[in-house]
Amino acid sequence: MMFFDRAMLAMGNILFILGLTLIIGFAKTLAFFARRQKIKGTAAFGGGIMLILLRWTFVGFMVELYGIFVLFGDFFATIAGVVTSVPVVGPYVAVVLDKMGGVARRNAELPV
Fold first, then answer.
1. What family is this protein classified in (predicted)?
2. What whole-number distance in Å separates Cα of residue 24 and Cα of residue 82?
């Protein structure tokens, strides 16, 4: 029930953006979100935040989730590659990834 609490989602979004800015810097964060190929994801993420603030929490969360997948989709392959090296879970994740088509970095355009 608390998962779609408007105040918690808004705080989480603000802290996510602030944390990203603190980790990679203001200029790189701005450059990442303003990239031409990422503009659809940025618009969806920002629109999701606005919908959450306008009390459409579930719809806003779904729009925001789509924006996150567009913005950080290239990074998920990197995460999957790291998870395969985890001692207990890694072999199982590797089997699942092999059946899905393997781990391949399509686009390494992350700001860090």
1. Belongs to the GOT1 family.
2. 20
pTM of this prediction?
0.71
Please report, for the chain, the start and end positions of each structural domain, with discontinuous segments joined by +. Answer: 2-73
Residue that the structure tokens 């199982």 belong to: 92
Q: Report the C-alpha gap between 24 and 38 in whole angstroms.
A: 17
Do 48 and 64 meet the contact criterion of CB atoms below 8 Å apart? yes
User: Quick one: pLDDT at residue 1?
Assistant: 58
**What pLDDT was estimated at residue 7?**
87
Task: Tell me the residue ranges of DSSP E strands in 8-60.
Answer: none
Q: Which two tokens stand for residue 68?
A: 């996150």
Torsion of CA 36, 70, 40, 33, to 10 degrees: -50
Is residue 97 within 8 A of residue 103, CB to CB? The reply is yes
Helices (H), 25-101: 26-33, 39-53, 57-83, 90-100
